[in-house]
UniProtKB/TrEMBL annotation:
The organism of origin for this protein: Klebsiella michiganensis
InterPro entries, per the entry: LysR-type_TF_proteobact-type, LysR_subst-bd
Database matches in SUPFAM superfamilies: Periplasmic binding protein-like II
Record-level GO BP terms: DNA-templated transcription
Xref: Gene3D superfamilies: 3.40.190.290
Family label: Belongs to the LysR transcriptional regulatory family.
PANTHER family found in the cross-reference section: HTH-TYPE TRANSCRIPTIONAL REGULATOR, IRON-REGULATED VIRULENCE REGULATORY PROTEIN IRGB
Name of the featured protein: LysR family transcriptional regulator
GO molecular function terms attached to this record: DNA-binding transcription factor activity; sequence-specific DNA binding
CDD domains: PBP2_CrgA_like (cd08422)
Top-rank taxon: Bacteria
Occurrences of domain LysR substrate-binding (ranges): 1-199
């Protein structure tokens, strides 16, 4: 099984530990990587992927959904107040390098209205992992768009705060991706069902 380091450590490894206790005959190998593996050549049964899926060579099962939120350090926001979507569009963003321009999202406003939002200022900072984006945000480098499950503790401690919290970014999917074989192995189906039960 392969996952991103952050989601693996916080969510999948605790689930795998319980799953392996339920199925003691199974041997479990977990690999953390921010890069998408070739499941067949690298002999993975399952990859857990977040966001939206682009690769159609594999089958995918939706496990659950999660919120993504724009966050910044209170010290940064004190110096660069963001009170309108126009200010948000021209703010200093820290972006995941996997995102491609134009950086656009449909937002949901406080009255459930749909609003097209685009980052207008080219980001100066990018990184290849959510934990690096979070570290930049904690260091006062700008706004990062991050999974709520990753930043929950930092929000609770007020190390980070939500920016423009009345507006919601699209919820993201958690997918179990597996090779498109004629017969899905029983262990793969059992793990997907277990994750849905635990996270759904």
């Amino acid at each position: 099984i392969t996952t991103t380091p952050e989601y693996g450590a916080q969510v999948i490894i605790p689930a795998l530990a319980e799953f392996s206790q339920r199925h003691p005959a199974l041997r479990v190998r977990h690999v953390s990587s921010s890069h998408h593996a070739d499941l067949i050549s690298e002999r993975f049964d399952v990859a857990i992927r977040l966001g939206t899926l682009a690769d159609s060579r594999y089958r995918a099962a939706l496990i659950s959904r999660f919120a993504i939120v724009p966050v910044a350090a209170p010290s940064w926001l004190a110096q660069h107040p963001v009170k309108t979507l126009e200010e948000l569009a021209h703010a200093a963003w820290i972006i995941h390098e996997r995102l491609t321009a134009p950086l656009r999202w449909p937002l949901t406003g406080p009255d459930e209205e749909s609003i097209a939002f685009e980052i207008k200022q080219a980001p100066r900072l990018s990184a290849d992992s959510a934990s690096a984006l979070m570290a930049f945000a904690l260091a006062g480098s700008g706004i990062a768009l991050l999974p709520e499950w990753l930043v929950a503790a930092a929000l609770a401690d007020s190390a980070l705060v939500k920016v423009m919290p009345a507006f919601s970014f699209p919820r993201q999917g958690v997918y179990a991706v597996y090779p498109d074989a004629q017969h899905v192995p029983v262990r793969v189906r059992a793990f997907i069902d277990f994750l849905r039960e635990r996270l759904g």
